[in-house]
């Protein structure tokens, strides 16, 4: 089933969420290659037709372009998640801070770009060791009390910040990286994350787990993988080899790589929704098809054990 019941949004939410960085490449910042306005409009329309109703974005995705496109082309009953804390200077040099004044400004700017009267989920994007998490959350709580924010969440958080955050505001949603290559973020939250509506970014590890990233693949300048320090070629090469071994094991069970990775997050870990940065209509069609074919928990555990032995 594409939808999962929850008690947070008052309606079912798609198990696949649309990763908004996919439509922001030529805007700069965090993105994954050029996509024209027409292509973005078509892609968003197709995702909605498939039943996807959860859309994740942030101002740094295309320096506002992702939010602008979601605001233009999504119906008002789409569930939109956006974030504050990763800002930029006039030179477009990134500035990461959870200063309350910056968070408030970013929230109001997002509201305008998204053309919304309220935001479904507003998150603090990353922890900031220089700012107590409770300070920006006091600002978000103020807007929640005015019904301009529906749900407050934390992205890439830790147990310490999560504990402090609950002193100030009701936290409903968590988002962190999770994939078969990296479970650290959710593991460090221990069982706490299971109390929340949980989303994974990096579900396919920026394409590595789609099987399409090879050591020789070249990326456009508008693709962050061509310049970002987190795209370490040596580390990527190691991951590629490990993924090849996983694919070989999966062939014994007639399970595709993407199918396994999707259900690893949703069913083996039990997350509420997986964010996927699909760039084509076919990719989205394939994801929805994979969603309908769930390997058994026992099979997924067996594969994982063989792979890591």
Question: Quick gist of this model?
Answer:
This protein is globular.
Describe the structure.
- The chain is built from ten helices and twelve strands.
- α1 crosses α2 (65-73).
- The model has no long low-confidence stretch (mean pLDDT 95).
- α2 links the parallel β4 and β5 (79-84).
- It is globular, with a radius of gyration of 19 Å.
- It has helices spanning 37-50, 65-73, 100-113, 134-145, 159-165, 184-188, 233-251, 257-269, 281-291, 297-308; strands at 3-4, 13-14, 16-19, 54-56, 79-84, 86-88, 94-96, 119-124, 149-155, 171-177, 197-201, 273-276.
- 38% of the residues lie in helices and 17% in strands.
- It has an eight-stranded parallel β-barrel with strand order 3-4-5-8-9-10-11-12, surrounded by four helices. The chain has a two-stranded antiparallel ribbon with strand order 1-2. Strands 6-7 form a two-stranded antiparallel ribbon.
- The longest helix is centred in the C-terminal third of the chain and has 19 residues, at 233-251.
- The chain has a single domain, classed as TIM Barrel (Alpha-Beta Barrel), CATH 3.20.20.
- With 309 residues, the protein is α/β, with parallel strands linked by helices.
